[in-house]
Fold these 2 entries.
Entry 1:
Amino acid sequence: MPKLDRYLLSEFTQATFATLVVLLIVAVGGAFTDVLGDIARGRVPAGMMLAQLGLVLLKWLPLILPLALMLGLMLGVGRLYRDSEMPVIASIGVGPRRLLKPLLMLVLPIVLVVGACSLWLGPWAERLSKQMISEANRNLIVAGLEPGSFTELPGGKGGVIYVGAMSNDGSRFQRVFVYRQGEDRREITTSNDGVLKVDEQGNRYLTLNKGFQVEGPRDNGLDFRMMHYASNELLLPAGETKYDPNNPELMSTPALLGDPRREAGAQLHYRLAPVLLTFAFALMAVPLARSMPRQARYGRILMGFLAYLIGVNLMIAGTGWLETGKISLSLGLWWLVLPMLALALWLYFGDGRLGRAKALA
């Protein structure tokens, strides 16, 4: 590889890697907040926090990597302009076409990674996340219930549960004490043994055998009732929605190809768009980063960030329009991707020709 290509590739790679690290740190904070919110609402068991955090980040990579690549290239190219290196490189006849080689050596591997994440790893992570949560709803161990200690009912609905002993799979237990309270009434339920069951709608029930239930007013009053039962079912607060393998967001990309539903077609276009948009953003970065030697470069970075926001928001909105039928599936997201690619190519190659024309003048 020529020394110039090695030097430019090194500059582009270092700037992109540094930008990616910063964006990942920010993304980890956002994902951590989302996961903690789901745990607080009882939708995700606390014991699955780290696994869910990793899966969320994997789903976000198709959106993080294009931004990191664009901003990294703009920072790298902007530094070359700031230190007057780019005018020197242009003076020896290195134009946009000559810069394509080191540029593509960085861009193409990242485009492949974005494609792998968008078409395969992202849907797999979403599917695995839902499966783990659905399975956890059938198991009180993962939901935070430990034998021999009082535990708040899942979802924080004003109650506690105590279990003296539990089976290894967390579905059967002994010596159960449950306290629940509402706005006006409260109740205490005890049982010698019980089992956790989940119906077809994903509702979770504690089926208790041979116990007592006492119900009475929450504040002052003597309106208490005691009942001895042979079997009693207590509905637990709802957790995450039931896992649906036919949900287009959870289906694999090959399965979407044979699905005639509009939602499946919209999801397929949503997974294809980031791959081409990544390439478009990378080409835009070079002309957008062009500046005078002592000119501030962060204003142009803001322009690049705004271009990214517009492209991604239109992609998300276009997916919704495809699902609702406002846009034909045959049109898909090509109305966004192809103009973005054409604009990126025009900016990249047109910028070089304008620069040479001015220099000759």
Note: The longest helix spans residues 96-136.
Entry 2:
Amino acid sequence: MPAHHSKGFPMIIAQLSDFHARPHGNPAYGIVETNPAIERAVDEILKLEPRPDCVLVTGDLSDCGLPEEYGIVRAALKRLPMPVYVIPGNHDRRDSFARELRPDHPYLPQAGFLHYIIDDFPVRLIGLDTVVAGEDGGEICAEREAWLAGQLAQGQGKPTVIFMHHPPFPVGVDGMDIMPCQVSPGFACLIADHPEIERVLCGHYHRPIQLRFAGTIGYVVPGTAHQVALDLRPGTENRFVMEPPALALHVWRPGLGLVSHLQPIGDYGPRRDFVLDPAYPGKPQTVPAR
């Protein structure tokens, strides 16, 4: 555990998702330049003060699971000085993902599902592989659920974050919910039986989404390039839109727990002081000296 955490300082977890790296010169869907967007996301993390203790990337690092795409991802993530933990999504190919990324990410298992535990921080991190080869949706099958149950049983109540690509809950948007993560009827009970689970962090849906789930909070982060257009009409299909990308910062403090913040990626101008109108009814504030 880093020494500063023992003194009550926060642990900061950055979450990125859905890079959709493409071979150079081949933008996603013909128009989305995803590779520069990955670099901008890394730049945003490098600008943060204080910097995160670690970065989670919740799936779809590639667009088609090609070695060239993973090479682009590796080069971008190497710029980050803190540990980076990756998990595959439906656009990834599990074997290629592991083979191409394992040299820089040796925590990835040598075979089978790409689950793992990181227990080096005040918050325990559990990466869960939800990929079903050839499918858009995901699954937490009996084998995967049993693995998770075993790991949770060994956690001794330590604050825990589970991160995966596919949300294991519906979000109330038909175009998204047709690509669900299939889970057993007992999965939510498993999560609820472990109140130490602070969040279930996901990607896949390219939108900021939060909901109460199994006694904890389900949290979906936007993509680093394109987003899924919000459409609440029943029976509609997904379309994408170039809304601002974002990353999440999950900040854990002793005695408080985990607080999640959404940080837009990009330049939105300088920070400015608040200058209040004299008619403001609250407490006057002093503008700091420069």
Note: The first strand starts at residue 11 and ends at 16.
